[in-house]
Structures are given as C-alpha cells and as structure tokens.
Queue: 3 jobs
Job 1
Amino acid sequence: MTALLVALTALISLVGTAATPTYASLSPWRSDAVADLRGAPTADGWSTDLAARLLPLVAPGCAAFHASSAVDHVVLLWATTTGHGCTPATADTVTSTVALFDTATGDVLWTHRLSTDAFRDIGTVAVSSASVVRASRTVLVEASAAGRFRVVSLDLATGSLKGFHDLGTTDQGVQSTVTASFALLGATGATAGTTRWQLVDPARVGRPVWFATLDDTARPLLVGDAVFVALGGRSVRVDGRTGRITTLGQGTVDLQSAVVEGNDLYTTQASDAGDVITAWNGEGRMLWVRSGTGDIVGVTRTCVVTSFVGTATSSCLSRATGHVLWGAGTGTSSVSLGLPGQTSDSVFVVSVAASGRQLLVLDGATGAVEAAASIPVLTFPVLASHSTGYLVRRDAADADESISAFDVRTGRVLWTEGASRGRSVELWGGRLVSVSSAGVARELVDRQPGPLGR
C-alpha cells in the first residue's frame, strides 16, 4: 500500500508539473517592469483626482488626459479639452498644463503651465507629444500655438523651464525621435518635399548639435547618441556628442529601409544575389553581414526576423552573430516583434490568413510555437510582463476600445477590460489605469495570486 501511494504521488506530481506552464525571468525588455495582472482587474490601487490636482479652477469633465511613455515609472501628463463644461477662459489653462506623474504611487510630482513662459502671449497651446529623457534629467515637450511649433525643455526634478527652441511655422506638425540621451526633430522645410532636421541635447534645445534640410526621401535615423543619414549621396554617421561626421561603410549603405533597435542598426542592401542584411552598432561599426534570408520583418530581444515576400516561413538571425538560428511557419502575411516589458526571448507574430488574424508566440531559441490564439481585427499586442501579455483593440478612429490580457505560454485570454461611457482604460508606464470623464484616475490591480509556474 505504501509503495502504491508513493507511485500515485509521483504520478500526480509529474502530471501537475507537465500541466503547469513555466515562465522566463529575464530583465524586462525595452521598458520598466510591466504589471502582471492574471485575474480580472479591480480599482483597488491608487486613486488620484487629476482634474483637481492639475486643473483646480476648471470644471470637472472639461479635460481629457494623455500620458507619455514611461521612464523609471514616471510619465508626463497633458490634457485636451472635451467641450463639456469648458469655457474660452479655461481652455488655455487645460491645454497648456503639463504634469509629471508617478505611476507606481499615483502622485503628481509637479505641474507646469507652458503659457506662462515658453508660449507667453502667443495663443492657445496644444501639446502634441512629450518624452522623459533619463540621461539629461529632462522632460521634452513638443507643442504649438498659433501655428508656431516649439520644443520645450523642463527640469525632470522640479518642472522648471530649462529652455525652448522654435521649430518654425508649419501645418504638418513635428516629427521626432527621442533616445535616452538625444532628440532628433524635424519640421516641414521651406521647399515642398523637404524637412528641416535638428539633433539636440534635450538639456540644451536651443543649440542643435547638427542640422540639415533634407529631401523627404532621406529621413535620418537616431541610433543611441548618433544620427545615421545620407548626405550628398553618401551614407554617414553624425556623432551627437561632437557633431563629427564620418562615412558609414563605404558611403553606399542604403538607409531607406533600415531598422533601428536600441543602439543597433540593421540595413538591407539589394544585390544580384538577393537582399543583403548588415548589422551596425551605434558607433558605426559593422557587426555582421548575412544574405539569402529575405527582408527584415521584425527585431526582438535576440532575433532579427526575416522572410521572403509571399512565403509562409520566417527565419531568426542571431542579433549577436547574424547566424540563422531557426526557421518557422508564420503565414504569408505576418509581422514579428518583441513586446516591451517581456521577460523572455519569445517572438510574437501577428499573422493574417484566410481564416482570420492569429497571434503566435514562438520560442526565441528554437522557433517552436509556444502559444497560438485568434485575435480580432484592429487588435494588436503592445506589452508583456512575466506571465501576461496585453492586447489593445482600437476603433476605426485609432482610439483604444479595450485591453485584453493573455497568458504568454498558452495564448489563453485571461480577461478583457473595455472602455465605457464615462471612462477610458489605458496602460500608463506598464500599469493599467482607468480614467473617468471627471478626471479621476484609478490604478486597476489584480487581487488574485500570481501564476503557479515560474
């Protein structure tokens, strides 16, 4: 009897182990840690009345709040008017106020009104985007008033004005790329089909390190601390620290279809033998060259994913060496990507077939399918955590409609939280936040225990 019990116990243990998914524990990729919400979220986290804290003299419901991407769990918030309870006198207060917000605690760290300094006596301010720049301890805000676009630099610790720089008058807006140290800014040039580009240190926005007016077909790329661009028909690297220009490769590198990931650049060059993929580091040094694998369709933690047009197979080139690690069936129309926050080397593939759209999760080391799930149209994977991935479904106007969580090892949908009349649901700095029409933000949390496997 004892032997039988021991055998049954071992069998049950074996079955339980086999049925329990295991989850990788690498450092979060490309972002702060993302909340791992396995159960249906509840509004039991922090709660902050943003309307009262940021806009105490404005009627609740007049403002809709927006958040930048997060750095060290802080985001910059700004607002637009909704038309509910707003007056001409309060509209400028709403649109010119920005605030630094801690997504871990729900605290408003500081507020700043742009119309009191950077946009004084110009007109109603409209913020288009913002970025937190860790290296220079700066918040960079892109905004406009009366058709004049400016980039504004604020101190990360206090919110005080460091400086601002005119980008000109344009009806096309501003193009920008921001890394941990630099910002590349572009505004419509005086000649049709051109763009004025500037590379700036966010702490000294009024003194560009480099600037040039380029044809719109020659868009520069910001890679770490440098710009890679075609100048005078020659591929070059512009050092952000010194402004020094050096030739990239032999000066013939095609940058039009290049892909940037972190401090690495991947270029594709057409040749008689097919496309040639080359990896470069941020210093402009060639790392490896590979041909015969098709076009780049995505870059993940460990892979440069490639595929030939019209084929149903993708290959993983090692980001470190360029060697082909594996090939996998991913469908004839697919996009491969890594998700910010993921703690694995998994490759997430959105595939479109006659049967509909599918999300595949592939093992980054082998290409084996770890999970598969059908997903609706206009639904995209955006973030991942230790055991959970997040899908955002958008409407035809590109507004967030709902957020769903899925298990990264099984593909099983765990829950769906939809926007409703009177509130929106958003991801701020890797945390799920519900914002009411009255401007009250609440952190949605999971009160259930975490996953069984580790």
Job 2
Amino acid sequence: MGSNQRTYGAAEWRAAAAAWEAGDYGTEWLPYRDLARQHGMLYPPTEAQRTVLWDAINEDPDLLRFSVTVATSWSGVLDRYLDERRAAREAADAAEAAYRQQKASYVTQQEAAKSLADIMQMLADSVGTQPPASVAIGSAVSAYQEKLHRAWWDWHNTHHTSESSSAVNGDGLCLYDACRMMRRITEAPIDEG
C-alpha cells in the first residue's frame, strides 16, 4: 500500500516548531500554520514569502486558507493565491469595461429629444398636422402623443378593413406602430450625466 503523503520524524517536527517560534509568528498565523501542517508543510515560509502571506492574511484570509488547502508548499500557496487575485482583478476590470460600454450605449437626453422630434415630424407629415414649434420632453411630448393617438384612431376608424387591423399609410408606416415606437423611446434609459 503506497501513499503519496510525506511522513516526518520527531526531529523534523521539533526543528519545524523551533523555526516557527524563532520566526516570531503571532497568533494570527496559527490557523494557517495548522492548515499547512495538515497539507505537509511543517516549516514556516521564507522571509520573502512571509511578507506576501502577511498581506494575504490581512487582505483576503479566506482565499489564503483555500490556497493553503490546495498546495503542498508555501511557494504553491503563493502561486495559487496570486493567480486567484489576478483572476479576480481581471474579472473586475472586465465587468467595469462592460459597464462603461453599456453606459455608452444609453441614450442621452439630447439624443432622445432629437429622435422624438424626428419621429414626431414624420408622424405629423403622415397625418397632416405639425408638431409643437419647440418640442419639450415631458408634457408637450405626452400631449402630442395623445394627439397622435387620437389621429390614429380617427384614421383607423375611417380606413379600417376586415383583413387588416393595422392599416398602413403611403410611407409604409403604421401610425399605431409609430406611436408605440415613440412610447418605447420615451421610456428608454436616459443618461443624465
């Protein structure tokens, strides 16, 4: 029966305990020391490793505990810990980039106003009315939407056929669909900044 676990003699246990005591490791190291022993790491880390591990104890103790459980040496612990931190940083950077890209796709108030003005002009041309001289987002848009909706009903009631409930005007635009499109634009997320 072979085993991949390393065994230590009494002299090695005493030498490792003396190294931990000589290194003046505080009580904050005890959970990591015990966990490291369970994974075959009797001796304390080197001074260079200790500095990084000290930061790990303070910054992300859960990740350090995980790193100790999957490694068989302090070098392996550091490699795993630093790889996981790097991966987390890259994921955070990717999430930030995705947020910036999504924010850039938001419609600004100026773009929304221009789109509404264009749609309202197109609708006005199709029903023979003119939009207000200065289109203000808010009550003027709502009032004009209501006027267009009434114009559509009037038009629909006079031009409705049994085979087409969404009759189309000469430009190929159904007034009802245009009103719905305008409503979607007015409800789109608007970037205030």
Job 3
Amino acid sequence: MTTNNTLAERGGAGSVYGQRSMVPVDPRSRGRCGCGCRTRATHYGLGDGIGLMMGCEFYVRRWVRDGVAVYRTRGGTGEEG
C-alpha cells in the first residue's frame, strides 16, 4: 500500500523533477529578485511549462541547472541558512 505524501513532505516544494527552463518576463515587470542582489527580476523559471519562480537571469539559470538546491541555501550563495 502506498501513502499519499504531500509534495512538501517529500522535499519537493518549489521544484520540479521534469523539464526546467527559463523565459524573459515583460520588460515593464517591477518584481525584484529573491536572491538578495536587489535587481529587477528579469526571467521566469518554468517547470514543465508552469511558472514556479522568478528572479534575475543568474538566479534563474542556477535554478534551471540545480533545481531546489538553490532554494535550500540562503540567497543562492551556498551558505546554509
């Protein structure tokens, strides 16, 4: 018998196990990046075609490459936090 764990219980919140990609946001977007760089969020991070996050180009590229590992560190700097 299988148990129906939620996504967060399996450690998958904010991540996707399939295809990750990035696309630019509308130039008029006023969102800010969550990595701490204080710049405008210029890209969306997509998981299987669904928008999961947004941030500066560097932050989103790291998320596409590493997935949820970026979120498990403080500001994507590699420091545990």
